[in-house]
Amino acid sequence: MIRFDNVSKVYPKQTRPALRDVSLEVEKGEFVFLVGSSGSGKSTFLRLVLREERTTHGQVHVLGKDLARLSNWKVPQMRRQLGTVFQDFRLLPNKTVAENVAFAQEVIGKSPGEIRKSVPQVLDLVGLGGKEDRMPGELSGGEQQRVAIARAFVNRPKLLIADEPTGNLDPQTSVGIMKLLDRINRTGTTVLMATHDQNIVDQMRKRVIELEQGRLVRDQARGVYGYQH
Ligand SMILES: Nc1ncnc2c1ncn2[C@@H]1O[C@H](COP(=O)(O)OP(=O)(O)OP(=O)(O)O)[C@@H](O)[C@H]1O
């Protein structure tokens, strides 16, 4: 699903790499936490997966494709197979809950009939049945995140990337969001989630990848501990 081979990233005008010689593989169906202190390289890692950035050295493969060899016009097609969820929800404020979710289908050319069928289904799945016509501003933070997850999931992505999805939520609401992401994972969608929340990581007992100053320092599922030199 994701493969990093000796990936380093140095941003323009920087001397210190944001990622240093990172190699790892995420298999189809896994749920993986990406952890590390602020500035350790988590967002850079996710941006490379989304091909919002390119590597300085090394290769990134996503869904079997070498992203360096993917022509620019094929990037949107690749991203359609991914769902993204962010800390700040990123909903369209002037569209209803249903319209926010439908939009994700409209942009990829789904028919109105398909959209009418799948939007209520996915809103039920995320626990928002009955709130289709609300505006995002009329929802709690947890509900807004559920809309964002519905939007990310409505096209049944192979890979869901979540960047601090519980960062703006209280602990109890966060548990609900994690249960939902777990449920989505159980449908077969691979989940890669960056987080600072150690409680969540402890509770979920999933694979944990830890970055420190751009290096992979822990990959729990594979029994790799300690620094890579
Ligand atoms: N666009 C950029 N240009 C230059 N340097 C950058 C850029 N984005 C990130 N960096 C640097 O790369 C390093 C890794 O940053 P990154 O945002 O990947 O860390 P992070 O682990 O996601 O941090 P946080 O938890 O605070 O979001 C940091 O030193 C950061 O300053």
From TrEMBL:
<dbReference type="GO" id="GO:0005886">
    <property type="term" value="C:plasma membrane"/>
</dbReference>
<keyword id="KW-0472">Membrane</keyword>
<dbReference type="Pfam" id="PF00005">
    <property type="entry name" value="ABC_tran"/>
</dbReference>
<dbReference type="GO" id="GO:0051301">
    <property type="term" value="P:cell division"/>
</dbReference>
<dbReference type="InterPro" id="IPR003593">
    <property type="entry name" value="AAA+_ATPase"/>
</dbReference>
<keyword id="KW-0132">Cell division</keyword>
<keyword id="KW-0131">Cell cycle</keyword>
<protein>
    <recommendedName>
        <fullName>Cell division ATP-binding protein FtsE</fullName>
    </recommendedName>
</protein>
<keyword id="KW-0067">ATP-binding</keyword>
<feature type="domain" description="ABC transporter">
    <location>
        <begin position="2"/>
        <end position="228"/>
    </location>
</feature>
<comment type="similarity">
    <text>Belongs to the ABC transporter superfamily.</text>
</comment>
<comment type="subunit">
    <text>Homodimer. Forms a membrane-associated complex with FtsX.</text>
</comment>
<keyword id="KW-1003">Cell membrane</keyword>
<dbReference type="InterPro" id="IPR003439">
    <property type="entry name" value="ABC_transporter-like_ATP-bd"/>
</dbReference>
<dbReference type="InterPro" id="IPR017871">
    <property type="entry name" value="ABC_transporter-like_CS"/>
</dbReference>
<keyword id="KW-0547">Nucleotide-binding</keyword>
<comment type="function">
    <text>Part of the ABC transporter FtsEX involved in cellular division. Has ATPase activity.</text>
</comment>
<dbReference type="InterPro" id="IPR015854">
    <property type="entry name" value="ABC_transpr_LolD-like"/>
</dbReference>
<dbReference type="GO" id="GO:0016887">
    <property type="term" value="F:ATP hydrolysis activity"/>
</dbReference>
<dbReference type="InterPro" id="IPR005286">
    <property type="entry name" value="Cell_div_FtsE"/>
</dbReference>
<dbReference type="GO" id="GO:0022857">
    <property type="term" value="F:transmembrane transporter activity"/>
</dbReference>
<dbReference type="InterPro" id="IPR027417">
    <property type="entry name" value="P-loop_NTPase"/>
</dbReference>
<dbReference type="GO" id="GO:0005524">
    <property type="term" value="F:ATP binding"/>
</dbReference>
